[in-house]
Each structure stands twice: as structure tokens, then as C-alpha cells.
Amino acid sequence: MPAFFITGTDTGIGKTWVACWLVRAWRARGHEAAAVKPISTGDRRDAELLREAGGNGLSLEEINPYYFHKPAAPLVAARAEGRAIDFPALNRDIGLLREKFTHFAVEGVGGWRVPLAPNYSAR
Fold this sequence. Notes:
38% of the residues lie in helices and 20% in strands. By secondary structure, the chain is an alpha/beta fold.
């Protein structure tokens, strides 16, 4: 059961394009496939594209449970909204969702070392 984490060096580097391509390719071969973007900031366009590529009925909230309005690193955006990311719950939910598909991708937010929480980055 393939599962991939899609990351890059920055925002706008092509993570969503790769994740959508993977999901479409898997589906074209008859696999149950999905991709999620658990954390996003600024807008939800990437999550909307992943939902379209998956065509599997997942809701935007399942694909993108943590959305912050400020287009900034998740740590900064979450603080601006007085929120925090519950990583144990997020990891549990991704794992449960992952079990529903034979092929799965998780798209990261921002770049490789973007700060997600105090002393915690995407690395």
C-alpha cells in the first residue's frame, strides 16, 4: 500500500501538482487513491485541487482539517487566530483516513523546514 509525503523547498514549488498527478495516475490504474493536505494557510485552493483529483467524496475538512486565513508559516498563522494544531489528533485522523485507501499521499505545507509549532517543523 503506497503512501507518500510530498514536500519541497518552498510554497509554489509544485507539491500540489505532484500530489494530484499521483492520485490521478493511481486512480487511472484502478486503485482507491486519495491525497490530503492536513495544514494550509492563506487559502484552500491546494486542498480543493486534491479533492477534485481524488474524486472519492472526501470533504474539504477531511482533506484539509487545519486551515488558517493568514498566508504565513502555520505557527504564525495559528497564533494570529489564537489556535494551535493538535498533532496527536491530526496524526490519528490521517492514519484512519489512510486505512480507507490502497494508495495515499500527504502534501506538506510550505517548505521543508517551515515552523508548524514551537520547536516543531516539517522535517
